[in-house]
From TrEMBL:
Keywords: Branched-chain amino acid catabolism, NAD, Oxidoreductase. Pathway: Amino-acid degradation; L-valine degradation. Belongs to the HIBADH-related family. This is 3-hydroxyisobutyrate dehydrogenase. Pfam families: NAD_binding_11, NAD_binding_2. Residues 156-281 form the 3-hydroxyisobutyrate dehydrogenase-like NAD-binding domain. It catalyses: 3-hydroxy-2-methylpropanoate + NAD(+) = 2-methyl-3-oxopropanoate + NADH + H(+).
Amino acid sequence: MKIGFIGLGNMGAPMARNLARAGHEVKGFDIAAPCPEGVECVGSAAEAAKGAEVVITMLPDGNILRQVAAEIIPVMEKGAVFLDCSTVDVESAREVARQAEAAGLRPLDAPVSGGVGGAEAGTLTFMVGGSEEAFEIAKPLFEVMGKKAVHCGPSGNGQAAKICNNMILGVTMIATCEAFALADRLGLDRQKLYDVVSTSSGYSWVMNAYTPAPGVGVPSPADNDYKPGFAAELMLKDLRLSQQAAEAVDADTPMGQRAAELYEAFVEREGGRGRDFSAMLPRFESRRRRG
Ligand code: NAD
């Protein structure tokens, strides 16, 4: 396929590289990052988009997505797929999809989970919103860049699935770290807590597959001095998106709101920026209930 790829950062570069390796013709553009191996570098987003059957964007946020969409929608071929893989707010995803549809394009919002490791290994999971028809066209590309793609419904539903998942993840991480910190104060060995919880009703992906305590459970960023992994500021971004969406549709999400507040304090005032999101455990460890 002829593919335009816009946004060649930590995630975009390995995704574009995997598409080129699989034999697709990829034209890439980024305002700052270099083009990865196998990708033809062009001078603008419009140039990358012109003549492409599928245009993929992997950008930092909804405002930048809207700017890039305004540049590329007018030059894209009718019927081409506009596949946005960035994590953005539901409203921007739906607005960009409306504009793309009005121009005769096929929009898909397809945020990913799996991080940089998943992007490099081609094992991402895609959560996809948009038409069945567009999903079928993009399927072979999902198969190159990832191991699973779930069609979640109409435009915006991919982003909705992503922020709901990550709201659960943020809340669960905090709950698990709180429990380890409480166990410490109660004189309960962390390994024993893990042995019980990982096979009891408190088990979770966080406890069982991303254990936030160093030396306990499976290897995780906790065993590497909390180097990300999944950085705390990215978790904060996703929690903020979940609260923005909850506000817009009047949904009551008190735990998600509290998780967003805690990650905001951690990232902006407590030295959490650049650390893995599981570094909430040393944060709780160093704090007391009263002052
Ligand atoms: P990144 O900052 O490394 O990459 C974004 C790239 O977009 C940068 O290279 C930047 O120069 C480029 N860019 C910005 N404005 C542009 C423009 N107008 N035109 C062209 N390029 C432009 O970020 P990332 O880690 O690759 O993340 C990309 C998206 O994927 C984000 O929405 C993020 O939330 C999401 N995501 C990231 C991870 C992760 O672990 N890094 C995991 C899942 C989802």
